[in-house]
Every structure is written in structure tokens, then in C-alpha cells.
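[Automated response] Your request has been received and processed.

Submitted sequence:
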Amino acid sequence: MSRILLGALQPGARPLGIGNTGARRGIAYFGGQHRGVIVKGGTADELAAECFCALLANDLHVQAPECGLVRDPDNGAILFASVDVQTPNLMQALNITQQATPGELSALAHELAGWLGFGRLLALDVLMQNADRNAGNLLTDGVDWWAIDHARALGLFPWNGHPLYRLVGQKCNAMLGAGAEASAVSNALTFAPGCHILSEQDLVQAGLPAQGAHFAGQIIARLPQLAATMSATL
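Generated structure:
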């Protein structure tokens, strides 16, 4: 079972310069080892969601960077830390800015539709009710992919469907759109027997503070109906 890293951020972390979360890149000290990290603040529920969703993603074979909680040396605040995989996000990888042209959006949609892991990501995001899955929250070097930024999952923000799935439906042909949905449903069917980080005890053993463990109940309740409701919730 993956564990949540616990450590201390070292002085000198610098703003990442992208996104709206105030993320910084720096070095953290975890149990005798220094690791490069991306850190950001948040409420206690948001930090818990970040940690739990990263554990859940890896347990369900959607790659997410190792994660932890660190103390800010400047003010003592507890921050979420994602181990830095030194990989651009999908927008950066495709050289697309926030003011994307129709052609760039089409290229983005086809890149997603061609990724073998896209359907599994869709199923995971529906399971977590992740309200903030965008192309900036996927890291890729063209071979490997990582899912990041899950502070707006598990009911913490309103869920309005999956924007990347809608983009594929708008910019790709009907066959690719149907293929993405079919892949999402078939992947959802595999989640229940493979998902074992679900109980409060499991979460606490994994390193998550006990006050964050209530999120597990939301996941357990969603598993039985997940595959049956994919089409409606995407």
C-alpha cells in the first residue's frame, strides 16, 4: 500500500508560475531523504482530498505522483506536497496557451482520445467526482501520464460532468467519442474488486490524518453504481 509522505519543506521554494493555486517548486525533507516537490496550501478537507485521491488513483492504476504533507518553514502551515516528476502538463507538452485556437483544441482532443489510459482516467474522475480535471492537471512526457490536482474532488466543489470527455465529443468523430465512453464504462467495472484503500483504518494506516478519513465513505457508496451511471455523469 502506498503511504503519505510526512516531512518539512526546505527554505527557498519558488512560485511555479502556472495555474491558480499558488503552487511552488522546492525541496522537502522526508525521513532522511531530500525530494523535489510541488507544494500548495488549502483547507484541511482539500489537503485530505489531495492525499486520498492520489492514493486511490495509484491503487486503481491511474498514475499519480507520490504525495505527502509538509510544514512550511516560513509560517508553520501544513501544505500538500506532490513529488516533482519534472514533466510538463498536457497544455505545455502541446504548446497550447490558455487562449487556445480551435485547431489547438482539436489537437488536444485527439491526443486525449489516442491515450490508452483516457477511459480509466474518466472512470476515476467520475468515481471521485473530480470537478477540476483539465489539460493542465495532466502531466505527460508523451509516454507516461500522471494525474494531479484533486483538491476539488469528493463533493468539495459542484460536479458538472467531465470537460475533457466533452471536448473529445466535440472535436473528434463519433467513433472516438463512443470509444472513450465505452472504455470508461469497462474500466469502471474493474474498480470495485481492485479498490482496497477504502476504510477509515486503511486511510489512517496509509498516513492520512483521521479527520480526513470520512472521504472513504463517499467512495464506497459510489462504487456499486459507478459503471451503470457513467454515461449520465460524464
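Summary generated for your ticket: The radius of gyration is 17 Å. The chain has two domains: 5-83, 90-233.
If you did not submit this request, please reply to this message.
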